[in-house]
Amino acid sequence: MDDFKILFIGRSGSAKTTAINSASQVKVVSTDVLMSFMTTDVKKETTVGLDYGDLMVSIPGGQRRLRLYGVPGQSRFSFSWEIFQQGCSGVVLMIDATDRCAIDDIHYYTSAGENTSKRIQLPTVIAIVKGDLLSLEGLSQFKENVSKANISLPVLWIDARSKDAVLSVLNILLKQIGR
C-alpha cells in the first residue's frame, strides 16, 4: 500500500482545516489556537502549526492512504511551506471566493518563474469555497475573473464541510498524481 502526502494550502480562513476534518477518517490532529487579532463571529481560531488527517481510498491497483496536511495560511509561517512540500504527492489549493485577493492568490501559488519555494510545482487542484456567500453579481464576476485568469489546473467549487465534495477534489488530484 502506497501513502500519498496531500498538502492543503491557502490563506488563513480558506477552509483548509474544515476540508481536512470533513474527509479524515481519524480524529484530526490540529494546532488551532485562539486568534489574537481580527477575530470574527465565524472564525475565532487559526492554525499555527499544521492540521493532520488520514484517509484510506480505493483506487485501481488497491488501497491508498492519503495523509492530509493543512499548513498555516499566515505569511509569517511561509518559512514552513518548503518543509511541508518535501515528499508531497499533490496539493489542494483552497481559495476563499469572498477574499478580495483570491485571484491574486491563485496566481501567486501557481505561477512558475522566480525560484521560490512558495510556488507549487506538484500536481494541484484548486478548490474554491464560500461561493455561496457572494451575491449573484459577485459570483458571476468572480467566475468571469477565474475564466480570464487562464488557469490550467482543475478548478472545483465546493463546500468544504461536505465530505463528498472534498473527496471529489481528492479523487481528481489522485488522477493527476497517477499520470
UniProtKB/TrEMBL annotation:
Q: Which UniProt keywords apply?
A: ATP-binding, GTP-binding, Hydrolase, Nucleotide-binding
Similarity section: Belongs to the GPN-loop GTPase family.
Pfam families for the chain: ATP_bind_1
Transmembrane segment boundaries:
none
Q: Please provide, alphabetically and separated by semicolons, the GO molecular function terms listed in this UniProt record.
A: ATP binding; GTP binding; hydrolase activity
User: Would the keyword 4Fe-4S turn up in this protein's UniProt record?
Assistant: no
| Record CDD domains | Ras_like_GTPase
Please report the name of this protein according to its UniProt entry: ATP-binding protein
Is Nucleotide-binding set as a keyword in this record? yes
